[in-house]
Specification:
With about 375 residues, the chain is of the alpha/beta class. The protein has twelve helices and 18 strands. Bound molecules: flavin-adenine dinucleotide. Flavin-adenine dinucleotide (FAD) binds next to helix 1, strand 2, strand 3, strand 12 and helix 9. It catalyses: urate + NADH + O2 + H(+) = 5-hydroxyisourate + NAD(+) + H2O.
């Protein structure tokens, strides 16, 4: 059996590694010549970590993961702590630690694990054709690839999605802009082993420790789509949006490097359930595009990869049957993640001001139990428990 994998991001590389683990040959085709991840870092929650462990990257992941032991919310203006708690109960309940990692380091880990030279870069898929016993991928450069099945890991703008669904999906603007980057850890910004988030006015500023004495930081601001903002105005834009916010936020704005800070308008896609058609399957953001509000998009791609490989390996009724079983195992799970993230997004970013004010007030009463309970519920839904 040979699989064609389209896309060499988190989804594509995890799929290639998972298939290899199950003795299934694959070829990875990636559109760009060099992958430059759009975001600075990503938090991998225990459900994702377990998938990477299962795929043989336990030690490698620990080497690039940040020491996130505590979590805290702070008032935007006074920097007073609204709630602060240990993440030890999360680790205890789920059986794994969460690991915030730099995206470029995660991508390098995945590529090195599979074999960088085995990925065909500069191969942009433009079309696919499937027959009863094979699939052909057609690339922009006029070349073709042939396989028994095709796994589309070509991200949120997937060109394969339409041929699986039979219609085009629209990306939905979630109503806010996210800026993210990396900055050296300094206790005057936040404690080095804590995920710290300043909240107020429907905005947030977050600092998460990654390896190498760095914080992954991000700013969220509810804004209209399509504003003419870029690197040249970045510091001035953030200074304006966060006027009156506490000193650590002002220091972060002063210290960040606009050249390496990303600005992303956040979108998702209404969940859909056909994830496969015949010998073609969607995986990762191609199958489910979510807002990053519960940090689960990449983790879900890792879960997809593990489930797909297990399903193909354990099935004797053929590829089409195995892919349908993959769809049945994943459709509800990924729909749930997208909708949970959307709900969280709306509360965090003041879609309804009263609900968000209630959330801020609730944080003062929070012992951590409710927040960790919600995270554990999400994590437990993963394929490895
Ligand atoms: P992608 O990463 O988009 O990779 C798709 C790949 O396919 C790319 O390399 C692309 O070049 C290639 N490609 C595209 N079209 C073609 C084509 N036609 N032919 C060949 N190749 C093609 N997730 C988490 O789990 N935790 C987090 O903390 C988190 N934070 C996030 C923060 C932000 C601001 C954002 C925007 C997302 C965040 N996510 C997070 C989500 C996560 O980044 C995505 O879910 C994940 O990157 C999806 O991986 P993917 O491989 O499916 O898609």
């Amino acid at each position: 059996m040979k699989a064609i994998i389209i896309g060499g991001g988190i989804g594509g590389m995890c799929t290639a590694i998972a298939l290899r683990r199950c003795g299934i040959e694959s070829e990875v085709y990636e559109a760009v010549k060099e992958i430059k991840p759009v975001g600075a870092a990503i938090s991998i929650w225990p459900n994702g970590v377990k998938c990477l462990n299962y795929l043989g990257m336990k030690e490698d992941l620990r080497a690039i993961g940040g020491p996130m032991d505590f979590m805290a919310y702070k008032d935007f203006r006074s920097a007073d702590t609204l709630t602060q708690f240990s993440l030890a109960p999360l680790v205890q309940h789920s059986g794994e630690r969460p690991y915030p990692v730099v995206r470029a380091e995660l991508q390098a880990m995945l590529l090195d694990n599979f074999g960088r030279d085995r990925v065909q870069f500069g191969k942009r898929l433009v079309n696919i054709e499937q027959k009863s016993d094979s699939v052909t991928a057609f690339f922009e450069d006029g070349s073709e690839a042939h396989g028994d099945l095709l796994i589309a890991c070509d991200g949120t703008h997937s060109v394969v999605r339409k041929s699986v669904l039979g219609y085009c999906t629209e990306r939905r603007y979630a109503g806010y802009v996210n800026w993210n980057g990396l900055v050296e850890i300094d206790p005057s910004l936040a404690p080095a082993n804590q995920w710290t988030t300043f909240v107020g006015e429907g905005k947030r500023v977050s600092l998460m420790p990654v390896a190498g004495n760095r914080f992954y930081f991000f700013f969220d601001v509810p804004l209209p789509k399509g504003l003419a903002e870029d690197r040249t105005s970045l510091r001035a834009d953030l200074t304006r949006y966060f006027a009156g916010w506490a000193s650590p936020v002002q220091q972060l704005i002063a210290r960040l490097d606009p050249e390496t800070t990303n600005r992303v308008e956040i979108h998702d896609i209404e969940p859909f359930s056909p994830l496969v058609k015949g010998r073609v399957a969607l995986l990762g953001d191609a199958a489910h595009s979510t807002t990053p509000d519960i940090g689960q998009g990449g983790c879900a791609a890792m879960e997809d990869a593990v489930v797909l490989a297990m399903t193909l390996q354990s099935n004797s009724l053929g590829i089409e049957d195995a892919l349908l079983r993959y769809q049945n195992k994943r459709a509800e799970r990924v729909k749930d993640l997208v909708l949970k993230a959307r709900k969280r997004c709306d509360v965090t970013h003041a879609k309804d001001a009263a609900t968000t004010a209630e959330w801020y007030a609730g944080l003062k009463q929070e012992s951590g139990e409710r927040i960790i309970g919600g995270m554990c519920e999400t994590i437990r839904g993963g394929p490895l428990g």
